[in-house]
Design goal:
Layout (H helix, E strand, L loop, with lengths): L3 H5 L3 H24 L7 H17 L23 E3 L8 E3 L2 H15 L8 E8 L2 E8 L2 E7 L5 E3 L2 H4 L15 E9 L2 H14 L7 H9 L4 H5 L4 E10 L7 H10 L9 E4 L1 H13 L8 E8 L2 H7 L9 E5 L4 E13 L5 E12 L2 E7 L3 H5 L19 E5 L7 E5 L24 E2 L8 E2 L6 H11 L12 H9 L7 H4 L1 H4 L4 H5 L6 H13 L2 E3 H7 L7 H10 L3 H13 L8 H5 L2 H7 L6 H12 L1 H11 L3 E3 L14 E5 L7 H10 L3 E3 L8 E4 L5 H9 L2 E3 L1 H8 L2
Parallel strand pairs: 2-11, 19-20, 21-22, 21-23, 23-24
Antiparallel strand pairs: 1-6, 3-9, 3-10, 4-5, 4-7, 7-8, 10-11, 12-13, 12-15, 13-14, 15-16, 17-18
Helix pairs in contact: 2-3, 13-14, 19-20, 21-23, 21-24
């Protein structure tokens, strides 16, 4: 499982560069795998890279790219086939890599649904077939078309090819009027070996593995070639339906078998994580004898009504997860330790390694987390790795598996050089020589130089122009570094005065390497275009610590404009809670109360806002920028729901859904969810046990509904 410290060690500079690199690699890998059927990296490497990408985004949400691999499923369909739009998107699955991930998956579902720890919650567990996803649409029992997953929304029309696969029926008896069957096209080991032997005899190209052979065979433009290949099909899911197949996942699988589809005989119902893990180990132990490739086990909530309640994230269902088989460990030499300085001043140690292959990935750098980890202790001073410290020259173990950010996991003391000395963590910034301090409760040492630290300044500028912030076409990390080094841009406002400060600006810029007259004109036009900016993008772009994309939207949705936000921050800075955020102080601090009432904004972010706005140098930077911008308010979601644009407060005990489920439903319908009742509240939903919030709503004359009334209002 990925530990929190693994995420804390990566700097913003490292993160942005790594996300760009991962995007390029994964885009190419998706095209090679899904379009060309010629994977260029192993499944283990792909999974590790994608999980690495997701982990970095989770820790640095402000750096998430618009073309993030996290939000992509498969790859765009090839131009060689007609396109089919899936009536129900074909999503990917989230991944688990160890027992703890599986337990946490079960816990998260129980928490979302409000189920007790000991309440029955059956799952199905089935082998995860390593093949090509396929959707088969039947109308009135007849196969109408077959489509690959593609990018999840649009796939390739491979109907003629699918009709040649023996496991795929042309006609179904007793099927619903509309039935879309989903499953995996694969090739057995025996058939794969025979196919390659025939290819070799004919002097034709052989295939690297059964998955490549199956995918390449199904995606032949000549269906007669597909017909000559020994393809098979396992059905395990469905898309559009005119009527339910069953009430449970297992029941639906049995129904598909009755209709004539091959289903995996190892699929089993398990009562909770203990049985799920036992079945996983059984499948893993027999993996080599199955006769076909699998790369893990898929768990799904068995009750289809609960699946419906759990719903979906952007690219994955909440009710299912793939438990992947483990990757590898490797040993190599630690050649050096570098310190990188991030946007918030964090000093992060990075191991420079003698390159080594781990799970199909060549690793030359790895995280060392923080100074405590190097010293062989945790944040509380307790020993880790049996108290062994890490020194330059050590023979170290590098671990990936679930920890997608490579890390140094252990040290072989028997291989330690005689002249190796304990590593001394710097107490001054290596970039600007300012003191690097470690606050109480913080695992990270931070540079105090602020804007005088070039590393922090340039990283803040890179963040400012990142995709989720101002996203200025032609002004990326590379250009920011160049302009910063030349002294052209030292703070965000100077981006918008760049052309003005250089007259037309054109001559100086177009003479630079990589620039011409047209590209210079395009840059200035792109900069001018972004003078009008959404409020939430502006807030996110400021690079304030703890202020991610979601919180920026929460703040922008609550405050009408910059003046309202900055004025409330200034008032909060003078209130008792700014000095002692205890209960009594908070009650005497209305501005703090306003921030804390915003769902998604807590004490840590409020304090961070105060620190940023109270810093004289940073405040001047903010003010110079704001004077140049046209800030666009964040509009409520465009929806015709009865709660769109309304501020809703949930209080008391909800009996038919959890608070998380209620909030998700409300926000999906365009409502704003607040944590406290005020004159701005439009609606209060009060369950049993509602106390002061319900009373305050009554005093203010705010409409109050019970849970049944709320469900009736939003349509169940």
């Amino acid at each position: 499982m990925l530990m929190a410290d693994d995420l804390k060690t990566m700097t913003e500079q490292e993160a942005a560069a790594e996300l760009a690199r991962l995007s390029r690699i994964l885009d190419r890998a998706n095209a090679a795998y899904h379009q060309e059927d010629q994977p260029e990296i192993s499944d283990a490497e792909y999974d590790a890279l994608k999980r690495r990408n997701a982990a970095i985004e989770a820790h640095f949400p402000e750096l998430k790219r618009e073309d993030s691999p996290t939000d992509q499923v498969g790859a765009a369909p090839s131009g060689g086939f007609q396109k089919i739009t899936h009536s129900v998107r074909m999503l990917s699955l989230g991944n688990a890599y160890d027992d703890t991930d599986v337990t946490e998956f079960d816990t998260s579902i129980r928490k979302y649904l409000g189920l007790a720890v000991d309440a029955p919650l059956p799952y199905t567990a089935e082998p995860k077939i390593d093949g090509l996803s396929l959707a088969l649409r039947y109308e009135n029992g007849t196969l109408i078309h077959a489509a690959t997953r593609g990018d999840g929304t649009t796939g390739e029309n491979v109907t003629a090819n699918a009709r040649t696969v023996g496991d795929i029926p042309d006609v179904l008896g007793g099927a619903p009027e509309l039935l879309e069957v989903r499953g995996e096209v694969y090739m057995s080991h025996e058939d794969f070996a025979a196919l390659n032997a025939r290819q070799s005899e004919k002097g034709d190209k052989t295939f690297a593995n059964p998955r490549n052979a199956a995918a390449g065979s199904l995606r032949q433009l000549d269906a007669s070639i597909t017909a000559s290949r020994p393809l098979r099909f396992f059905a395990y899911a469905w898309g559009s339906l005119s009527s339910p197949l069953a009430e449970t996942q297992m029941g639906a699988i049995d129904r598909l078998a009755e209709l004539g589809f091959q289903t995996n005989p190892l699929t089993q119902v398990c009562d909770g994580p203990e049985e799920m893990l036992a079945h996983y180990r059984k499948i893993e132990a027999g993996r080599a004898t199955l006769g076909y490739d699998i790369d893990g086990v898929v768990y799904k909530v068995n009750d289809l009504a609960l699946q419906e309640r759990l719903g979906f994230r952007s690219t994955t269902p909440r009710w299912a997860i793939a438990h992947k088989f483990p990757a590898e460990l490797a040993w190599t030499r630690l050649e050096g330790i570098d310190i990188q300085v991030g946007r918030t001043g964090a000093l992060s140690p990075v191991a420079r390694l003698q390159p080594v292959t781990v799970g199909g990935v060549v690793v030359s750098n790895a995280t060392l987390h923080n100074e405590d980890y190097i010293a062989g202790r945790d944040a509380n001073g307790a020993p880790i790795r049996d108290g062994k410290d890490i020194r330059v020259g050590d023979w170290v173990q590098v671990y990936r598996a679930g920890d997608v950010i490579p890390k140094v996991a252990d040290v072989d003391l028997s291989e330690r050089p005689a002249d190796a000395v304990p590593y001394v963590f710097p107490e001054r910034c290596p970039e600007c020589d300012s003191p690097a301090v470690r606050e109480d409760g913080d695992a990270v040492r931070r540079c105090t130089g602020g804007l005088i630290c070039p590393a922090q300044a340039v990283e803040k500028l890179k963040h400012f122009v990142s995709r989720a912030a101002f996203d200025i076409e032609g002004l990326g990390a590379k250009q920011i570094e160049q302009f910063f080094e030349d002294g052209w841009i030292k703070e965000p406002s100077e981006i918008f005065t760049l052309e003005e400060r250089f007259g037309s600006g054109l001559q100086q810029l177009k003479n630079r390497e990589g620039w011409g007259e047209k590209s210079a004109q395009n840059l200035f036009a792109a900069i001018a275009e972004k003078k009008r900016i959404d409020f939430n993008r502006l807030l996110f772009g400021l690079g304030i610590r703890h202020l991610g994309e979601a919180a920026a939207k929460d703040l922008a949705r609550h405050f009408d404009d910059w003046a309202a936000l900055s004025g409330t921050v200034d008032r909060a800075a003078t209130e008792p809670a700014a000095r002692d955020p205890g209960k009594a102080a908070l009650e005497a601090s209305p501005a703090w109360g306003e921030f804390l009432a915003i769902d998604g904004v807590g004490r840590t972010l409020t304090q961070s806002l105060i620190q940023a706005f109270s810093n004289a140098e940073e405040r001047v930077v903010f003010d110079r920028l704001i004077d140049l911008l046209d800030i666009v308010p964040l509009e409520a979601a465009a929806t015709d729901s009865p709660v769109a644009g309304k501020t809703v407060v949930f209080t008391g005990t909800l009996e038919k859904m959890t608070r998380a489920e209620a909030k998700a439903r409300a926000e999906a319908l365009g409502a704003k969810v607040s944590g406290s009742v005020s004159a701005k509240t439009d609606l209060v939903v009060a369950g049993p046990g509602a106390g002061s919030k319900a009373k305050k709503a009554a005093d203010l004359g705010i409409e109050t509904l019970d849970e049944d009334g709320w469900l009736a209002l939003i349509g169940g």
